[in-house]
């Protein structure tokens, strides 16, 4: 007798019955780029079909996303050059772009979960995630700015703050400050295992936030390491993170699996700008089938153990998964 695994692949119905992993819009977070001005929807050349939105048009995109079933968005601001400094002061301006965006969205779509990024880079003249002194990125001085930024985002109505800076001790510092100010319901989505990656290039184009000197390797992790990710995870969990994240996703599926197996918190994966751009670029050449590749790629992240996925493909996935395959 021959053992025949193909019996379980016989037709779409049996394949659906035995499928182990389901990609659903419920698990997606949609990152959005925002900018000043009115009636602006500006293309990002290295991220085809992604745009920077002024707040009026952002609201339309958020309503559209919510109607597609997307539960959460993450906001990333393009900051004017004349508002940048070494200390990221604009990042905690209560009337800054991010707090205004959060308030406007909360008014229009109160149910959607808003996640705000906590890091200095879009606000820094040096494009680094912390304060710079003599070519070094200062840790403890930067924590003070991250705390102020988080408080201003919480005051505006953010549901989660998401420190993406990789300074030591930031999750604990932010949690204590949020608690002391009474923001007990504001959560922390921690960029726990954030690697120093060339996959962030298109994102830095979108925000004009590329580092002006050096690289981010003194704070973002070395792509050769995985035990270090477990160490970062245990720190973030002890310091009070609600969700831990691995970033990038595709080249780090093993890290997603290790964090999933070793912790009880939800694990998020960030399908980053470079991963998005690679699919878009190959699809534009006609070299791959875009829709299939989006689903296959994001499903691999779920299979690796991701509970949530941040992806610029969120709206595409909502449409692609709304009817049976
Ligand atoms: C900022 C930040 C970055 C990304 C998210 N938050 C860029 C960086 O660290 O240089 C990258 C996201 C993407 O590439 O899609 N700290």
Please provide a brief summary of the model.
With 325 residues, the protein is an alpha/beta fold. Helices cover 38% and strands 18% of the residues.
Could you characterize the architecture of this molecule?
- The protein is of the alpha/beta class and 325 residues long.
- 38% of the residues lie in helices and 18% in strands.
- Strands 1-4-5-8-9-10-11-12 form an eight-stranded parallel beta barrel, surrounded by eight helices.
- Helix 2 (55-67) packs across helix 3, helix 3 runs parallel beside helix 4 and helix 4 (140-156) packs across helix 5 (170-180).
- It is globular and about 70 Å long.
- The two termini are 33 Å apart.
- The model has no long low-confidence stretch (mean pLDDT 97).
- It binds ligand PBG.
């Amino acid at each position: 007798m021959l053992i025949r695994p193909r019996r379980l692949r016989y037709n779409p119905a049996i394949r659906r019955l035995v499928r182990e992993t389901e990609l659903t819009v419920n698990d997606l977070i949609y990152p959005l780029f925002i900018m000043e001005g009115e009636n602006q929807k500006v293309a990002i050349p290295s991220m085809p079909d992604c745009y920077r939105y002024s707040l009026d048009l952002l609201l339309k995109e958020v309503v559209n996303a919510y109607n597609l079933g997307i539960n959460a968005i993450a906001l990333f601001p393009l900051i004017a050059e004349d508002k940048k400094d070494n200390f990221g002061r604009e990042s905690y301006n209560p009337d800054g772009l991010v707090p205004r965006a959060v308030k406007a969205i909360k008014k229009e779509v109160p149910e959607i979960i808003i996640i705000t990024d906590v890091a200095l880079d879009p606000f820094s003249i040096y494009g680094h995630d912390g304060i710079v002194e003599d070519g070094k990125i200062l840790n403890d001085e930067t924590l003070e700015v991250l705390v102020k930024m988080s408080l201003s985002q919480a005051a505006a109505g953010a549901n989660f703050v998401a420190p993406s800076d990789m300074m030591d001790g930031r999750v604990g510092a932010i949690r204590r400050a949020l608690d002391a100010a009474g923001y007990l319901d504001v959560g922390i989505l921690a960029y726990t295992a954030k690697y120093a990656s060339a996959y962030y290039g298109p994102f830095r184009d979108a925000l004009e936030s590329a580092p002006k000197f050096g690289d981010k390797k003194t704070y973002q992790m070395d792509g050769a390491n995985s035990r270090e990710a477990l160490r970062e995870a245990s720190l973030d969990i002890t310091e009070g993170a609600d969700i831990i994240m691995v970033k990038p996703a595709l080249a780090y599926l093993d890290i997603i699996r290790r964090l999933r197996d070793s912790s009880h918190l939800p694990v998020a994966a960030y399908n980053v700008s470079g991963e998005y751009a690679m699919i878009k670029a190959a699809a534009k050449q006609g070299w791959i089938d875009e829709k299939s590749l989006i689903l296959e790629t994001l499903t691999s992240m779920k299979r690796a153990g991701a509970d949530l996925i941040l992806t610029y493909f969120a709206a595409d996935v909502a449409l692609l998964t709304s009817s049976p395959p």
